[in-house]
Predict the structure.
Amino acid sequence: MTDILRLENIRKSYHLGTPVEAEVLHGIDVALAQAEFVGLTGPSGSGKSTLLNIIGLLERPTSGTLTIADQLTQGLDDAALTRLRGRTIGFVFQFHHLLPAFTALENVMLPSIIEHGQFTPQAEAFGRELLARVGLKAAEHKRPGELSGGMQQRVAIARALSLRPRLILADEPTGNLDTVSADEVFALLREFNHDHGSACLIVTHDPRLAQRCDRQLVLVDGRLQAP
């Protein structure tokens, strides 16, 4: 099966060249295959957010190689990284970051505006389809303030899928939700992973959810451990 993501000897240090220089990731090697669903767990401060930011092209590693969708990212400038991120990666966060002045449908269509510079009929049609699939067809024209936390997170998932990304990165997407809403959100991510063939890397502190992934990665003190 084709790898959508490959990290080789990824290291990340902060405050380089200063007395307080600190390495937080110590030679990470990992790969995700197309359509794979992987959980990432580990204690607070273990480097999970830093690793996710590097995979999401929001931070650059200090050393090592990162390949996404057969594209080696080393040497790409910021504009090229932004294009690769936009067309390949969908993000779901613990805090959904919906724009309060936009409707649910407009929030879902936002990545298309960024990618194409305008709303398109195709993006609107797919946005409506996604909202229907997450059970929010009747909420298309409601703003985030009119929706529950679980509903807002479902809008965020629809937004993450709006450009049909090959890789979904979910950072504690159920951390703010009750057990029922968390299970619904997890099931939706699983459904999209299955139906669209997107690889999914989900950071979670919930052992119930981690155990339902295809496999688990455990990060401790910046190093991957056997689960």
